[in-house]
Every structure is written in C-alpha cells, then in structure tokens.
UniProtKB/TrEMBL annotation:
This is ATP-binding cassette domain-containing protein. Keywords: ATP-binding, Nucleotide-binding. Gene3D superfamilies: P-loop containing nucleotide triphosphate hydrolases. It holds the Pfam family ABC_tran. PROSITE patterns: ABC_TRANSPORTER_1, ABC_TRANSPORTER_2.
C-alpha cells in the first residue's frame, strides 16, 4: 500500500467503545454484535455500550492537514483522541512512524506513550486549554518545562514561537488579558514549541467569531507552508474543512464514510449523505477553475482552425483570441489592461474567477504551468455556482 510508506500516522481497523453498563464482558458482547452488523443504536440500546468509532481506517500523510468532518457525535474527537491514546481503541492499531519502524500507540507501554506525548504529538483544543494564571510566555513554555528543559534554552524557543504567531509583544501578559483569537494563537505557539511533528487540533477555531476564525485559518495555512507538520484537524464546518484540508474524512455514526481530497469530496461525493454536506458549502473560495472550466481538448474546432469556445475563439498559438470579429490579446490577470482577455491560473477559486470575469468583461482563459488549457464563460460559472461543477 503506497499510503503506508508516506503516512506519519495511520489508524487501522479502529474500534473505540465506551461501556456505560459497568457489566463485565459488555465490550466483548458489543464487539460481537458490531461484527454481526448491528448498528450503533441497537448496540447502545441492548448493552449500554456506546460505539464511538467503528472500523476506522485512515492514513495521514506526512506534512498534510487531514480534516475529520461530521455532525456532532459522529466520532471525530474520539478518533482524534486515539492518536495520543486519550481514548484507547479496543481493537485496531494506531501506527506512528518511528525512525524506520512503526510504533502502535494503542498498545505501547506507558513510558513510550509519555515520551511520544512529550516529543512527537501535541494537541490544540477548542477552549485553548491554557493556564489562565500564567503569563503567555509561561503557557507557551509549559510543555518544555515539563520536559525539564533549562530556563535559558526554553526562553529562546518560546520567543521564537511567539514571534511565529505574532505575539512577541504579549509575552508577559496574563492569558486572560488576551482576546479569544490571541489565546488560540498562544495554544498554537505552545504546540509548535514542543517541536512535535504531529499536531492534533480539536475544533481549535470554533469558539471564535467568523472573521477571527478565517484569519486564524489563513495563519495556520501560512505557518503550515513553512513548518510542514502532520496535522489531524477536527471540524464540523464543511467550508473550513474544504479550505484547510489536503484530505477530508467524512464521519457518520462512528464510521468513516469517505476520505478524499477537497475535490473528491466536493465533486465526487460517494453518497447522498456526503452530497448533503456539499450542498451547504460556500463554493466561492472552494471550487477551483480546474474543476469547472471547459478544457480546450473537449471543444470543437472552427473552419479557420481556431478552438470554438462559443463567445470566444482561441487561435492555435493560444494567445490570439477572437471575440465576434475583433482580435483581442490575452494577458495574465495581474497585468490586465482594458480590452484584454484575462488568463488565470488553474488553481484560482471560483470567487476570484468571477471577479476577473467581471472586471475584464470577457470569458476567462485558464493556464497550467504557462500553457493555456481551458476557459470559463458565464455558463460555466453559473453551473459551478449551482453545484453542477464540471468534473476535472
Ligand atoms: N469518554 C466518553 N465516554 C462515553 N461516551 C463517549 C466518550 N467520548 C465520546 N463518547 C461518545 O462517543 C460518540 C462520539 O463522540 P465524539 O465526541 O467523538 O463525537 P464528535 O463527532 O467529536 O462530536 P462533537 O462535534 O459534538 O464533538 C458520542 O456518542 C459520545 O457521546
């Protein structure tokens, strides 16, 4: 399996059950019923055992942001918390790469687990998990302090991480003096300070108001470009998931329904349940030109040899374009001049394509690594807006 090679963290056949009955053998009985195909609800009713996660398989690749998405109670946090054994699976493995070998977090000894939590896996919570009576600096350095790191070295690392999240001037402030968004930055800095390569983020931004939330999402994506951590991120917001996730996993009633890239989820939902999530997303920042443009190789040629794009014709050298009986130049959108047709990159979002289309007044051409490959006209944009995006 190629995924295994590059995975930093891998869940294999994970079942996590919670016994509310206190009866001996309840978990084993629940597993037997689970294997016989009974639902979470049936098992809960019959045995007072909650199925938190069932049969979950997920590989999180090194350096990616993998988002767990689903409604409340779908098992996202339960699965996430198995990654540092805050929840212990009753069956299955949680594998983490350790040099050239794998370690099973679900079964390793306590000493190894403590070491992993200190050095490899850090967690950022929704409610920040900060110590309000400590200063910002002392919160960021908390994990290092626990590790027994000397104050002078600790201070250096803490300053560096505070600068990373833009809080250098707040180092001596008390945490309660900070706004929610700033407190969450302290949480991020603390996670970064440990140098953990795996970050677990449980709805870290959901307590924040929408503007701050979007800003922190942008900041996280920026930081991630530089730091290249492996991030497992829980969210119940499809827009957030599609924005920050390199891969998204949709969960329902403890089970994984679909794992895929944002495009897979948005354009190729495996069933109505996933499609329903997608119907509620905001397509403007999410859908990319690559997915709703018309590709040149799907378009007919005109008698004069130009590609027939309806309202626009594109010459064989692909820079000479014709609208009606007028020749136009095609130019990169950031070098736009009046009367020109704009060329945008294939990764441009629907919202931005609309803005460019609006400004130039012409259909928009799409390029990939310097080569023109397609176009977006009003009909393509409307189809994308109405959820009928073209498949890439
Ligand atoms: N420690 C626990 N003890 C008993 N039941 C639990 C425990 N943790 C989770 N559960 C149950 O497991 C199921 C999945 O919960 P989980 O918190 O993982 O869902 P979630 O998708 O993260 O939801 P939310 O978005 O509301 O946090 C729920 O039915 C929950 O009540």
């Amino acid at each position: 399996m190629t995924e295994t090679k590059t995975a930093a963290l891998e869940f294999r056949n994970i079942d996590i059950l919670f016994d509310r009955s206190g009866r001996r053998g309840a978990i084993e009985a629940a597993l037997a019923r689970l294997d016989a195909g009974e639902t979470r609800e049936e098992i809960g009713r019959a045995l007072k055992v909650t199925v938190g996660v069932a049969g979950a398989n997920l590989a999180v690749a090194r350096g990616e942001i993998s988002v767990l998405m689903g409604l409340s109670g779908s098992g996202k946090s339960t699965l996430l918390r198995a990654a540092n054994r805050l929840n212990r699976p009753v069956r299955g493995e949680v594998r983490i790469g350790n040099g050239s070998a794998w370690l099973d977090i679900a079964r390793c000894d306590d000493e190894t687990l403590r070491e992993l939590r200190k050095t490899r896996i850090a967690m950022v919570f929704q409610q920040f998990g900060l110590l309000p009576w400590r200063s910002v600096r002392d919160n960021v350095g908390f994990g290092l302090e626990l590790r027994g790191m000397a104050p002078s070295i600790r201070r250096e690392i803490v300053e560096e991480k505070l600068a990373l999240v833009g809080l250098s001037n707040w180092a001596d402030a008390q945490v309660h003096e900070l706004s929610g968004g700033m407190q969450q930055r302290v949480g991020l800095a603390r996670a970064f300070a440990t140098d953990a390569d795996i970050l677990l983020m449980d709805e870290p931004f959901s307590a924040l108001d929408p503007l701050i939330r979007r800003k922190l999402q942008d900041e996280l994506m920026d930081l991630q470009k530089r730091l290249k951590k492996t991030i497992l991120f829980v969210s119940h917001d499809i827009d957030e998931a599609l924005k920050i996730g390199s891969r998204i996993t949709i969960m329902r009633e403890g089970r994984i329904i679909q794992t895929g890239t944002p495009d897979d989820i948005a354009l190729r939902p495996v069933n109505d349940y996933v499609a329903e999530f997608i119907r509620h997303m905001n397509p403007l920042p999410t859908i990319l030109a690559s997915t709703f443009m018309r590709r040149f190789h799907d378009l007919p040629l005109r008698a004069d040899g130009m590609i027939d794009g309806g309202n626009i014709a594109i010459g064989p050298d692909a820079r000479a374009v014709r609208i009606g009986d007028q020749e136009r130049v095609a130019t990169a959108h950031h070098e736009w001049v009046r009367g020109a047709v704009c060329i945008v990159p294939v990764g441009m979002s629907l919202g931005e394509v609309i803005a460019v289309r609006q400004r130039s007044g012409f259909p928009v051409l799409v390029e990939d690594e310097g080569r023109l490959i397609g176009l977006c006209d009003d009909a393509d944009i409307l189809q994308a807006l109405s959820g009928e995006a073209r498949h890439g």
